[in-house]
Design goal:
This protein has 575 residues and is α/β, with parallel strands linked by helices. The protein is 47% helix and 14% strand. It has three domains: 111 residues, Phosphohistidine domain (Glucose Oxidase, domain 1, 3-Layer(bba) Sandwich), CATH 3.50.30.10; 109 residues, PtsI, HPr-binding domain (Enzyme I, Chain A, domain 2); 300 residues, TIM Barrel, CATH 3.20.20.60. α19 links the parallel β16 and β17. About 2% of the residues have low confidence. Bound molecules: phosphoenolpyruvate and magnesium ion (MG).
């Protein structure tokens, strides 16, 4: 059989690179769902099952959206926002509940009926954009349906070939995260965009990935040999021997170039005048840890525990969390691991999904934990129990007042007493730190510094709250200005307060991994920067080419500037 070449559109290449492997066609989830009649008595529990599934879907989307916001995937954020809106649509909710109640049928059956009506209504619309919305209904409908049926998103334990190119209609981020890396060469999906969450993950994990290809299965069978060439936007089907040899050579060359960068990344980031900036990794999933180490992370600067709560209707148990934290600590073999306690908004977890008017200003992060103390205690107990297995540090998000810290300390004392009574081994003196991500926190940093062992500046939120811009609203994204003089002053206040109190000051917001901001951060005298692992080699290289003394001088004059552009002028391109 001769080689066939499929041309790709540029935007289909979600993650570039060369993949050589055999096609594994993921069976689609199928459209089967249970249909049965219910009795009058069962109606209320069936309605509540439906509401729970919608709530769970909203929570999943909220977490995905939250992660996307950090990567500025604007298009996809809008799509997700439209999905969240659809979840709240009375047409979908009220109609499904009404059908369950009036027709006495199970929730899956009622949902299917409503979805069919909605799709029909959209499909007949004149406007192409509105017609396209039928895909959104499909997506949202499938999510609610699988939550109703208790289907797990994590679907892959083993892949069939040593180098597998996974071919799927669509892939959720959680499914993507569960693909075994050692057998995975690449991914091709029929639907999806380059800014989809799964695509972002693919780039972070450097897996060559093609999205939105359409029906690839009309060209490819199970086990077919394939080459994905993301660089020249082609897929080669059944490549002949000479093509295979050529691409294997290209792949080797690429790997050698990456290895060189990685080798250089093993040594620390020390400036020309001897200042050591510690570079750490921001991690959301355990799977990212081997890569963080490979990319030269000296530790984990922020482990976002939100993902542990994804895909679960109930909160993860103490035992489940303990095992998870222990695994992370063991994988990091004595390197520092900063685990951030749950940072999630109240409306994402509790009650109904009616939106609070200002969720970012509401019951979020530590506020939620101090209200729902049992959830917080469970997490703290698990963390302390895991503490003997490595160098754990605990970090609290969204601290706004000194009182919150006092409350946390008192809860920790209770946790210690309980663990001691129950004869659990744990370390009492784990370093405790706070995120500085609310302006009030930066302003009273000198007070807070007395009570903690470290600060970690979260610029994603600090910018949102200081410049009064919703970080998920792209209409105001032009105001996302890390160089805004107000931000620069708050960073400076925080760094100074930390230095004077002799505690460590780190940064884990997105700008910590962006070359544009590295010189000012050196000038601030931060102790460590935590970032997406993939940015570490580049940032290390840049730091090695700088003098910290020059950076301090540049920062001093930048702090006198009146606009973001003027601040920026003091730091000619850092790349
Ligand atoms: C931040 O706010 O900068 C931060 C690192 O936390 P998150 O992005 O998780 O809110
Ligand atoms: Mg934050």
């Amino acid at each position: 059989m001769s080689t066939k070449v499929l041309k790709l559109e540029e935007k289909s290449v979600a993650s570039p690179g060369i993949a050589i492997g055999q096609a594994y066609i993921v069976p689609s989830r199928g459209t089967h769902f249970p249909k049965y009649w219910i009795t009058d008595k069962e109606i209320s529990s069936e309605v509540s099952r439906f509401k729970q599934a919608v709530l769970k879907s909203a929570r999943q989307l909220a977490i995905i959206k939250d992660k996307l916001c950090r990567f500025q995937g604007k298009e996809q954020i809008q799509i997700l926002e439209s999905h969240v809106l659809l979840l709240k649509d009375p047409m979908l909710n009220d109609s499904s509940i009404q059908i369950i109640t009036d027709s006495c049928i199970n929730a899956e059956w009622a949902l299917d009926k409503v979805l069919a009506q909605l799709k029909l209504a959209f499909a007949s619309m004149r406007d192409e954009y509105l017609r396209e919305r039928k895909n959104d209904i499909d997506y949202v409908g499938r999510r609610i349906m699988s939550n109703l049926m208790g289907q797990q998103e994590h679907g892959f334990k083993e892949l069939p070939y040593p180098n597998t190119i996974v071919i799927a209609y669509d892939m959720s981020p959680a499914d993507f995260a569960s693909l075994p890396r050692h057998q995975l060469a690449g991914v091709i999906t029929s639907v999806g965009g380059e800014t989809s969450h799964m695509a972002i993950m693919a780039r972070a994990l450097e897996i060559p990935t093609i999205v939105g290809f359409g029906d690839i299965t009309s060209h490819v069978n199970e086990g077919t040999q394939l080459i994905i060439d993301g660089n020249s936007q082609q897929i080669h089907i059944q490549p002949d021997k000479s093509l295979l040899t050529l691409f294997k050579r290209k792949q080797r060359q690429q790997r050698a170039a990456t290895r060189k960068l990685l080798r250089e990344s093993r040594t620390p980031a020390v400036t020309l005048d001897g200042y050591h900036m510690h570079l750490m990794a921001n991690i959301d999933l355990i799977d990212e840890i081997p890569m963080a180490l490979e990319y030269g992370a000296e530790g984990i600067g922020m482990y976002r525990t939100e993902y542990l709560f994804l895909n679960q209707l109930d909160y993860p148990s103490e035992e489940e969390q303990y095992k998870h934290y222990k695994t992370i600590l063991k994988m990091m073999k004595g390197r520092p691991v900063t685990i951030r306690t749950l940072d999630i908004g109240g409306d994402k977890l509790f009650g109904n999904i009616e939106e609070h008017l200002n969720p970012a200003l509401g019951l979020r992060a530590i506020r939620l934990c101090l209200k729902e103390v049992e959830i917080f205690k469970t997490q703290l107990r698990a963390l302390y129990r895991a503490s003997p297995h490595g160098q754990l540090r605990i970090m609290f998000p969204m601290i706004t007042t000194c009182d919150e810290l006092r409350q946390i300390r008192s809860i920790i004392r209770e946790v210690h007493a309980e663990l001691t009574r129950q004869k659990h081994k744990f370390r009492h003196n784990i370093p405790l730190g706070i995120m500085v991500e609310v302006p009030s926190t930066a302003i009273i940093a000198d007070q807070l510094a007395r009570d903690v062992q470290f600060f970690s500046i979260g610029t994603n939120d600090l910018i949102q709250y200081t410049l009064a811009i919703d970080r998920t609203n792209e209409q105001v994204s032009y105001l996302y200005q890390p160089f805004h003089p107000a931000i620069m002053r708050l960073l400076h206040m925080t760094a100074t307060a930390g230095r004077q109190a002799q505690i460590e000051v780190a940064m884990c917001g997105e700008i910590a991994g962006d070359p544009k901001y590295i010189v000012p951060l050196l000038g601030l005298g931060l102790n460590s920067l935590s970032m997406n692992p993939i940015s570490i080699p580049r940032v290390k290289k840049l730091i090695r080419s700088q003098n910290q003394r020059d950076a301090i001088r540049q920062l001093e004059s930048a702090l006198l500037a009146g606009t973001a552009d003027e601040v920026s002028d003091h730091f000619p391109s850092g790349d």
